[in-house]
Every structure is written in structure tokens, then in C-alpha cells.
Amino acid sequence: MTKADEAASPDSGAAASELRTVDIVFDAKARTLGKMKSEVTITSQFSNFSVTLETDEGKLHGGDASAPMPLHYFAAGVVTCLMTQMKAFAKRLRIPVENIEMNANFHWRLEQQGRDPYVSQPVGFDIDIDVDSDAPLDDLKRLIEAAKKGCFAEQALTLPCEIGHRLKVGDDWVDV
């Protein structure tokens, strides 16, 4: 196990006052499969686990709806990431939690002028959380606040983060 691996392990025996920093990095390699269908392989550099997923769009974009839309994975990632953090942090905070159920609503809006490409924007995301626990309300609130701060997906939505884009031109990459 590398130093980074040891630092990320909750059972590494690190002192309670020791600040640990761990980079969590995922690489995604995607390609189109015709029409609006795509395939992406996502690899976690930390765990070296890979998964290949397909996406497709519905009729609005000329797809066949043969696989989940990319936004299906987005919504699933946000909700399941928050649930995972709640279960993990419940142990660390010694708050008893049996089961968690969430209902979420993810709302975007698009605007389009004529045949121009549309512009999308988030309207709002709401997550209702049902926790099976005998813990006091203040403990559950503390748990949810900790999970929100530890949820990688929610933090990506909450904190500004620049996304770099490059276009391959011949053998070079050009920032766009």
C-alpha cells in the first residue's frame, strides 16, 4: 500500500490531530458508437477499478433511448455518493444508522433561439433524506452536514471548479 493509500484508509491508525490529504482521481475514456450512443470507461486511479458504461439519448436528440442518458448517471452519482458518505460518516461519528432512503429532484432548463444550439442551466436540485435511526435530530443533522461536505459529487456542484477542454489538431492539443 502506498502512503496515499494508507492515508485514505479509515483504519490506518493515523493520529486524530494529523491532517491527511488524499487525491481521488478518476480517468474517463469515451467514444461515440453511432447516432447519439456513447461508451465510456471510467478508471479510479486510487482503487484501480474500471467500469464501462453506455449512454444514449432519447428522441429529443435523435437517439434510440437504448441506454441511460448521461444525466441518469449524474443524478445517480449525486444521490449514491451522499448516501455512501452518510453511512461511512455515521460510523466515524458513532451515530447509529440502519438504512437510508433518498428521493431527489434534479431540474435543469434549456433555452434555444431558432436552430442555434441550446444553452442549459441548472434550476435546482432537492434531496429528501429518510434515515432509519434512533439518533437524536441534532446528531442526524450533524451527520448530513458532514456527508454534504464529504460528498465529492455535491462538492463539485457547490464549489467553483474550472473544467479544462482541449481539441486534438493533428498531433497537438489546443485549449478551447
Explain what you see.
This protein has 176 residues and is an alpha+beta fold. The protein folds into two domains: 1-67, no CATH class; 69-176, K homology (KH) domain (GMP Synthetase, Chain A, domain 3, 2-Layer Sandwich), CATH 3.30.300. It is built from four helices and seven strands. Strands 1-2-3 form a three-stranded antiparallel β-sheet, with no helix packed on it. The chain has a two-stranded antiparallel ribbon with strand order 4-5. A two-stranded antiparallel sheet has the order 6-7. It is globular. The two termini are 38 Å apart.
Structure in a nutshell:
The chain is α+β, with helices and mostly antiparallel strands. The protein is built from four helices and seven strands; from the N terminus they run H-E-E-E-H-E-E-H-H-E-E. Helix content is 29%, strand content 31%.
Record the SSE blueprint:
Blueprint: H1 3-8, E1 26-32, E2 38-44, E3 50-55, H2 70-93, E4 99-111, E5 119-132, H3 137-150, H4 152-158, E6 166-169, E7 172-175
Antiparallel strand pairs: 1-2, 2-3, 4-5, 6-7
Helix pairs in contact: 2-3
